[in-house]
Amino acid sequence: MDFFEVVRTRRSVRAYSSRPVETDKLQAILQAANLAPSAGNLQAYEIFVAQSQTVRDRLAQAAGMQEFITQAPVALVFCANPRRSAGKYGQRGATLYCLQDATIACAYAQLAAAALGLASVWVGAFEEDEVRRAIGVGADLRPVAILPLGYAAEAPGPSSRRPLRDLVHRLE
Fold it and tell me: CA triplet 113, 158, 5: central angle to 5 degrees?
């Protein structure tokens, strides 16, 4: 699929079929995330793959009972690794660059999923400590996004977007 077609047709899906995600597709999505640019090429993030129903249930609970997380056959959890970035970039690396790294990796994964015919939705509303407990990590990692993946059981239409004239500010 053409890149711009992927961007144009990607939707936030909150209903998934029970069809499992093929291993090769999941691997391709993870590889796309791995290819995302990062500050100093440090890749100051970690990706946790939740395929177990128990873990997905805990993630849904951590996210205010967003049940579609339990419905999707896979949920990826992207965590920033502040210590990895701080070693090279100090405080700015620990508070910003690692978050940007995790965010860019998640965006690449989301677009790769769409290109492969899979659905997803970016989840950022959750209790960080509960997500940490669900995936079994300590306070040294900061959960940034949960990305449920699967085959869509709904077909949402496009959402409205701001016109470019309101969004883009040209500098002279």
Answer: 50
- How many angstroms separate the CA atoms of 48 and 100, rounded? 17
Report the domain count for the chain.
Answer: 1
Q: How many CB atoms lie within 10 A of CB 156?
A: 13
Round to whole Å and give the CA distance between 146 and 138: 17
Does residue 20 register a pLDDT over 80? yes
Average pLDDT, the chain: 96
In the prediction, which pLDDT does 150 show? Answer: 98
Domain that holds residue 87: 3-153
Nearest partner of 118 among 26, 4, 47, judged by Cα: 26
pLDDT for 44: 98
* Residue 51 in tokens: 């395929």
Single pTM value for the model: 0.95
